[in-house]
Design brief:
The protein is of the alpha/beta class and 252 residues long. The protein is built from six helices and nine strands. Strands 3-2-1-4-5-6-9 form a seven-stranded parallel beta sheet, sandwiched between helices. Strands 7-8 form a two-stranded antiparallel ribbon. Strand 7 and strand 8 form a beta hairpin. It starts with 6 loop residues before the first strand and ends in a 10-residue tail after the last strand.
Length: 252
């Protein structure tokens, strides 16, 4: 099945990495359902795809809410009849404060969106992919460099991104019998609004504050497109795409 016939759902599609990936998929010929909490950024992302945006469906969605997620995938099936690709990208962080000062609400918000949201979307994707013809599909999870190592004062975000790795592996195993492939992209310092603070200096493990290099977010979109382009009998299980000189290799 070539790209013009494929259908993708991208969560967190209104800004940053999600927007870049959604636009790239649209320009590659996909029909794309853009999901996110705010309608206006989703509509702007579709518009930024140019004429290709005509193949987009904008669906405001709270991935931490079961009914909202079910409505997203019902809308996808009604609009396009199938699902070939899910990019689990929606994510938030907590304030960069001391672990012992984090509130329960701050912890729970990050877990509900980053981890439970990815699970709920994966579950609904399974239901569509296993029953469609041709059967199967691909799920790509946004893991982050934080799926490997933490930054200071990042317990909720880091814990959920480590958990995404477990979800990726379980999804790969449980999806085999349905021809569902699952991989994870771990991204470091893509130039988005969320990462803009890297350019002005962020805390390091030794207590210092340092400016960190950034890379163009389009490199992330290109990597996701490549992962998505593979036939279902091939899979990129894990891939890391990062600014070459960011302080990841050599940490500690």
């Amino acid at each position: 099945m070539n790209s013009p016939n494929r259908v993708a759902v991208v969560t967190g599609a209104g800004t940053g990495i999600g927007k870049a990936v959604a636009v790239a998929l649209l320009r590659d010929g996909y029909r794309v359902v853009l999901a996110g909490r705010r309608k206006q950024p989703l509509e702007q992302a579709a518009a930024d795809a140019g004429p290709s945006g005509a193949r987009a469906q904008v669906v405001p969605t709270d991935v931490s809410d079961l009914q909202s997620v079910r409505a997203l995938f019902a809308r996808t099936k009604d609009a396009f009849g199938r699902l070939d690709l899910l990019f689990n990208n929606a994510g938030v962080g907590a304030p960069g404060i001391l672990l012992e000062e984090l509130s329960y609400e701050q912890w729970k918000s990050v877990v509900d969106i980053n981890l439970t949201g990815a699970f709920l979307c994966t579950q609904e994707a399974f239901k569509l992919m296993k029953g469609q013809d041709p059967r199967g599909g691909r799920i790509i999870n946004n893991g982050s460099i934080s799926a490997h190592v933490p930054r200071p004062n990042s317990a909720p975000y880091t814990a959920t991104k480590h958990a995404i790795t477990g979800l990726t592996r379980s999804t790969s195993l449980d999806g085999r019998k349905y021809d569902i492939a699952c991989g994870q992209i771990d991204i470091g310092n893509a130039a988005t609004e969320m990462a803009a603070r890297m350019a002005t200096g962020v805390p390091q493990a030794n207590g210092s504050v340092a400016v960190e290099p950034l890379m163009d977010v389009d490199h992330v979109a290109s990597a996701v497109l490549y992962m998505a382009s593979l036939p279902l009998d091939a899979n990129i299980q894990f891939i890391t795409v990062m600014a070459t000189k960011m302080p990841f290799i050599g940490r500690g």
